[in-house]
Amino acid sequence: MANSDSKRVVVTGMDAITPIGNNLEEYWAGLVAGRSGTARITHFDPSQHASQIAAEVKGFDPGDFLDKKEVRRMDRFSQFAVIAGQRALEHSGLTITDLNAEQIGTCIGSGIGGLKVLEDQQEIYLDRGPSRCSPFMIPMMIANMAAGLTAIHTGAKGPSTCAVTACAAGSNAIGDAFRLIQHGYAQAMICGGTEAAVTPLSVAGFASARALSTRNDDPTTASRPFDKTRDGFVIGEGCGILILEELEHALSRGATIYGEIVGYGMTCDAYHMTSPVPGGIGAARCIQLALKDAGISPSDISYINAHGTSTGANDPTETQAIKTALGDVAYKVAVSSTKSMTGHLLGGSGGIEAVATCLAIANDIAPPTINLHDPDPDCDLDYIPNQSRPMPIDVAISNSFGFGGHNVTLVFKKYRS
């Protein structure tokens, strides 16, 4: 549990680049409307692939925000983070100066990093030889570069880290940023998750593992968490960023506060490379630890943004984890998977889902789980099927689980002085 003298941490800014909207307003409108971002892949010719669909970011031109030379020296995952990070700062009204730069940091997770750069450079290596590989290949590819470049572009000189915990990376990054502020190592953090892994090799690898949906003829209905007819997840891309800030610092500058982060739990299944432990024991323990950290009881929770991947392994396991963690209260809590709309952003998913959770609290609207028409009998909670739900939301949690057995839960609540 957090120390009694630890600092309160609030959300003062957000931004998102997603398959259903390239800024915060478009993203929230897409969530409330229940819009799917899945379509046939356009980043490459997918005709030889078993899964030919993805939730791509559409109409995104990094040249609208960055110098052309900078664009050429960044992989797409870093472009997302740098742009969303700058816009989230603007949204927060926080200005980084020489006086406060060392108290503001970056913590941005990515599960895979610059895979597109690696694939492209491998082709150059094979076709034209090692001397023709780009000197920027390694710094463009490594996963920490989203955090590093965001720091460079914003001037943030405080703590800078990158969580690489597969599909839990974005949530781990936010939780770690929370801890840094809570215990006085920073006054504010630019944090979240980013991913741009809709590439031939990535899609081939996930498809070979039989993890992806092959509903190629009807892409908008392919991501169907908790539905009996689901056949795998839809790979997505994008970025979600939060500005976390120490409460007194935020109040001193008159910041708008969109919510408070109050709990962070993480565990490991220590069971299997890709499969969750049966019964979701590790995930349940993670939820319980987050609630204990927050000083929140299960009956306080209004809404859960589920990991909800639309896979046979995750959905019933997460359902059981929620039941184990919350007891009978689980049936009274509204739960939804926004991956039904955005697809699965891998390391970026925790970022956009934390943004969705904060917006749900701020607007008292729970986003839906779309494409849920034939519920799996093993998934019997209230999943907010197909239409968003206006409802009071005081406390909400966001779950993220990753290959390797990583489990993360974040707890947010309405800010009250």
At the first level of CATH, the class of the largest domain is: Alpha Beta
Write the CATH homologous superfamily of the largest domain.
Thiolase/Chalcone synthase
Kindly name the structural category. Answer: alpha/beta
The number of helical segments is 13
The CATH topology of the largest domain: Peroxisomal Thiolase, Chain A, domain 1
Note the run of SSEs as H and E: EHEEHHEHHHEHEHEHEHEHEHHEEEE
Please report the distance between the alpha carbons of the first and last residues.
21 Å
Shape: globular
Q: How many beta strands in the DSSP annotation?
A: 14
Radius of gyration (CA) equals 20 Å
Q: Please report which band the strand proportion falls in: under 5%, 5-15%, 15-25%, 25-35%, 35-45% or over 45%.
A: 15-25%
Helix content percent band? 25-40%
Low-confidence stretches: none
How many distinct domains? Answer: 2
Biggest sheet descriptor: 10 strands, mixed
